[in-house]
Here is the input.
Amino acid sequence: MPAKQLQNRQDFKDYCLRRLGAPVININVDDDQVEDRVDDAIQYWQDYHFDGTQKFYWIHAITQTDVNNKYLDATQAVDSNGNNVHIIGISRIFPPSDSQASINMFDLRYQLRLNELYDFTSASYINYTLTQQHLRSLELQFTGEVPIRFNRAMQRLYIDWAWGSGYEVAPSQVVISECYGAINPDQYPNMWADRWLKEYATASIKKQWGENMKKFGGLQLPGGVTLNGEKVFAEAEAEILRLRDEMETQYGAPLEFMMN
Here is the structure.
């Protein structure tokens, strides 16, 4: 019979406590402490595991509030499924000029499409492609990438351009941002079944258990049982160090430039 699949936070907590011996052994850890250690484990997993983040494109229509603030409020970011995502990094943006199709008949791109791609069944794409690459090279040479600044604690995307001047950006225009967001276990419950996360959370709870018992070290209970919080604490610390080393060598995401 296959093992029960963990599907929510309570299942996950119960699993970790069972691994430590509950209910056969009384685990001297308060439920609030268990919650804290699970939160710490999830945060570490999201920060370093290659499955802890997702790459997505945040499509945002500029509002007058954005223009007044001169930044975008990233707490409102949603992925392609409409789920709210906590952004941990933004690598670049696509300016409005690139993210919106031009409807101006005098626009150079419009004229290229009109004259070069008039017949999609026989017209060659070579000249159009080369011209587009040339235009992009000129744009990068004389304008460059739009400078952006983002900090995950502030959850604000600062874009250093001419806000509201009518030259670069104004209300109703659309900005597309290439983002990295933390996986939310409430939206993707398969996260609770991750082997590394289960082991790390269990070790973290065990360390808390040892910390709680350390002040009673050497105390002999009825029946001759002696509490040894120091040993439990040391075992848990060694396990946590092993798991962190495993994360760095096996599960860490490849290095990639991100604006943090």
